[in-house]
Write a structure and sequence with these properties.
Layout: H1 6-13, E1 16-21, E2 24-38, E3 41-52, H2 68-76, E4 87-92, E5 102-107, H3 110-114, H4 122-136, E6 139-144, H5 148-151, H6 154-164, H7 170-176, H8 187-196, E7 201-204, H9 208-216, E8 221-225, H10 236-244
Parallel strand pairs: 5-6, 5-7, 7-8
Antiparallel strand pairs: 1-2, 2-3, 3-4, 4-6
Helix pairs in contact: 1-2
């Protein structure tokens, strides 16, 4: 690779940080201005993306603390990051200093978030939580790209869908394919959250495991806001399984 232009390094360096955690170092890039269309209204968010250092190709001994940005640039084109998954966070308002802030830890759902599938409520939850954060004035939506299918991956999720069409519920399908019901980890997410904010947060979720992970991390938790909606004949069994098999809080949930 040819020598890296020092002016490029200087431009990028002020918005690249490394954060050390128990699972290794992660690289945080941002903030980046991201105007978002929410139901016809333009809302300004700040966007960050993070990457585990181990996903770069030449990281023996970890990411270099000296000449860090130059080192990262050197690795990018050879690391095939498009074939891996990176998570990110969308921040609104004065997230660092606001006395009250909402957060949503949203697991990627290729079918629901992108295609608008009604087999689940993920697309609705993604859109609605962004609106809630914007309306509140300060908050962050963490978009967790290694959480597809509760951590089993997109292809495995497609296999699980085939079993669900034969009558298995979400939990049963994952177990029959050799997975646990839920294999998701929030360690890196919580590391980034603590880096961006130390004040209390209110979590938008129906999932007690997310709330437990947040509290176990030592983060100050103000409370929780439920988020149910877009209930239909297509996702009735899916939602019932969340409550009856996965222990999701069920207040404000009425399944027709």
């Amino acid at each position: 690779m040819p020598a890296i232009d020092e002016s490029i390094v200087s431009l990028l360096d002020q918005n690249i940080e490394t954060i050390k955690g128990k699972n290794g170092t992660i690289i945080l890039v941002g903030p980046i201005n991201l105007p978002v269309n929410l139901d016809g209204e333009t809302v300004l968010f700040k966007w960050y993306c993070w990457l585990p250092c181990k996903d770069l190709v030449h990281t023996e001994g970890g990411c270099k603390e000296t000449e860090r940005t130059e080192f990262i640039i050197e690795q990018l084109s050879a690391s095939n990051l498009a074939e891996k998954q990176q998570s990110s966070v969308l921040v609104h308002g004065d997230f660092e200093n606001s006395p009250e802030a909402l957060i949503r830890m949203h697991s990627i759902c290729h079918t629901g978030d992108i295609f608008g599938s009604k087999r689940c409520d993920c697309g609705f939850q993604l859109h609605q939580s962004m609106k809630m954060i914007a309306s509140h004035g300060a908050g962050a939506l963490f978009y967790l790209s290694n959480h597809e299918g509760r951590g089993i991956g997109l292809f495995s999720k497609a296999m699980a869908y085939l079993l669900q069409e034969k009558g298995y519920d979400t939990v049963e399908a994952n177990l029959e394919l050799g997975f646990k019901d839920d294999t998701r980890s929030y360690d890196d997410t919580l590391l980034v959250l603590k880096h961006l904010r130390s004040k209390p947060v209110t979590l938008i979720t129906n999932n007690p495991r997310k709330l437990e992970a947040l509290k176990a991390s030592g983060m100050n938790v103000d409370g929780r806001i439920p988020l149910w909606g877009d209930i239909s004949e297509f996702n009735r069994k899916y939602l019932e399984t969340k409550v009856n098999r996965s222990g999701h809080f069920n207040e404000e949930l009425t399944i027709p």
